[in-house]
Hints:
Blueprint: H1 2-24, H2 27-36, H3 41-61, H4 68-91, H5 111-130, H6 145-149, H7 151-192, E1 221-223, E2 229-231, H8 232-235, E3 241-246, H9 252-267, E4 272-279, H10 282-289, E5 296-300, H11 304-308, E6 316-320, E7 331-332, H12 334-345, E8 370-372, E9 378-380, E10 389-393, H13 399-403, H14 405-414, E11 421-426, H15 430-434, E12 441-444, H16 449-453, E13 461-465, E14 476-477, H17 479-484
Parallel strand pairs: 3-4, 4-5, 10-11, 11-12
Antiparallel strand pairs: 1-2, 3-6, 6-7, 8-9, 10-13, 13-14
Amino acid sequence: MENLLFILRILLVAIFGVAGLAKLYDLDGSKKAVEGFGVPENLAKPIGVLLPILEIAIALSLFFVQISWFGAIGATVLLGIFIVGMTYQWSKGNAPDCHCFGQVHSEPVSPKSIIRNVIFIIPAIVLIVAGKDNQGLNLFDSNNNNLTESPMTIIIGLAVIGLLAAVVYFLKQISEQQVQIMRRIEILEFTAHDGTKEVEREDVASPLEGLPIGSPAPEFELPDLNDKVVSLKKLLSPKKSTLFFFVSPTCNPCGALLPEIEEWQTEFKDKVNFVFLSSGDAKANAEKLGGKTLKKILLQKDREVAELYQSKWTPTAVLINSDGRIASRLAAGDSAIRQLIEKIRATEDEVLFVKETEDSKLGAELPAFELEDISGKTISAKDIIGKPTLVTYWSQGCGWCQRMLEDLRTWDKTKGQDEPNLLLISSGEAEQHKEIGIKSTVVLDNKGDIPRELGMSGTPSAVLINEKGKIISEVAVGADNIWSLVGKKFEQANGDKKE
C-alpha cells in the first residue's frame, strides 16, 4: 500500500508541477484563460498569476509525507473547481481554452478535458482517505527500510522527478522557439497586411521607401490612450532622439516583437524616446501593446500619420532626431528594426542620423569649391555657410527638372526667412539659365565635380547643408523627395497633378 500511495503522490507532483511551470511561462495565456471562464477582467490577471503559484506549491507539498495530506486536499479542491467550472461552461455551450498545461498543452473545454480532471482527482482523494499519517514511502527518510526493499518504486519516483526536471528545462526552449517561429511565419502577414486593411499587390512598393534622411518630420496631433492630444513638438526632447513605431493592435508581428521593444526601451532610456503610432480603440491597444513598461501610444483615426511618413507596413520604425528631422530610413519588419537598433546602439550620444552605407556623405563637411554663377561672379563654399541651404543639382536638358521648374520658381519667390537658401548647380550656358527665372544663386559646373563630391549622380537631386556647412541630409532624388527636404509638397511636383 505504501508503494501505491508513493506512486500516486509522485504522479500528482508531475501533473501539478508541469501545469504550474507551464502557466508561469505563459502568464498572458493564463490570464486570458481565466477571463474565458467568466472571471472579471480586473481579477483575471492576479488570479492568472496566483493559479500557477498555487499549483507549484501543491506539487512541492506532495513530495513530503509530513505535509502531503494537506497537498492532496489542495489538489482535490483545485481540481474540483476546475471540474465544476468546465462542466458549467460546457453545459452553456461555451468552449473556453482550458490552458491546463500552458504552452505544453492547451485545448478548448470538452467532455474529454472534464474526464481527464476527474481521473486526476481520484489519486488526490485516495491520499486524503488514506489519512494524514499514511501517505506512503518517505523518499527523504534514509532510515526507511522499505526504500531499499522497493527499488522499483524508487526508480519510478526518481524517473518521474527527472521527467519533471526535463520538462522544466525544455519548456523555456519550446517557449523561445515558438516565439521565433511565430515571428517568421507571421512576417508573411506583414507582406500582405498593414494591420488595418488589405494591401493591393499590383501597386505595392518597396517597404524601404520613405522620407529622405534630413527632411523635416511631418507635423501631426494625435490623442493618446487617455484622449490627451499630443503633437510632434511635444514628443521631441533636447539631446534625445525619438523612435516611432507604426503598429496596430491587429498586427501579430507587432505583438511578437513587443518583448524586444521593451528591452530596447529600457536600454536606450537616456538617449531615445519610444512612441507607438497605432489605430483602433484605446482598450484594444492597451491590451495588445501595453506590455510591461510604460509606453506612449498615440491613436490615428485610420493611417493618416503613417501616410505622412510613407509607412505602408506594420511593424515599421523610423528615427526622428531632436531637431525634428528624419534620422533614419524606414525600417519595415522585425529584421530591419533590429538592424536599426544595432546602428543606434553603436552610437555613444544622441543619434543625429543613421547612415545607410559607409560612403554616405551624411555629417561630412561641405567640400571646398569655387564656381561662377550665371552673372560671372565667383561663388565659393564659404559664401553659403551661415544659413541652411538646399543644394540642388539640376539640368535644362532633364525632362524631370523641367517639370519641377514651375514649383521651383514659386518656392524661390515665396519662401520665408526661416526657410533654407537655394543654390542651384547646373550646366550649360549662362544666358540660357538667365531665362529660367530663378532669383537665387545659380552656378555652373559643366563637369559635375561638385555634385559628385556631394554624392549626387543624376538630376534632379539635392542635399541639405546646415548653417555650419555640414551635410545633414541624404541625397534626395526626384522632385517629391527634394521638396520633402524643405517640408514642402507641390501639386505639380513631377509634372502630373496629384490627387
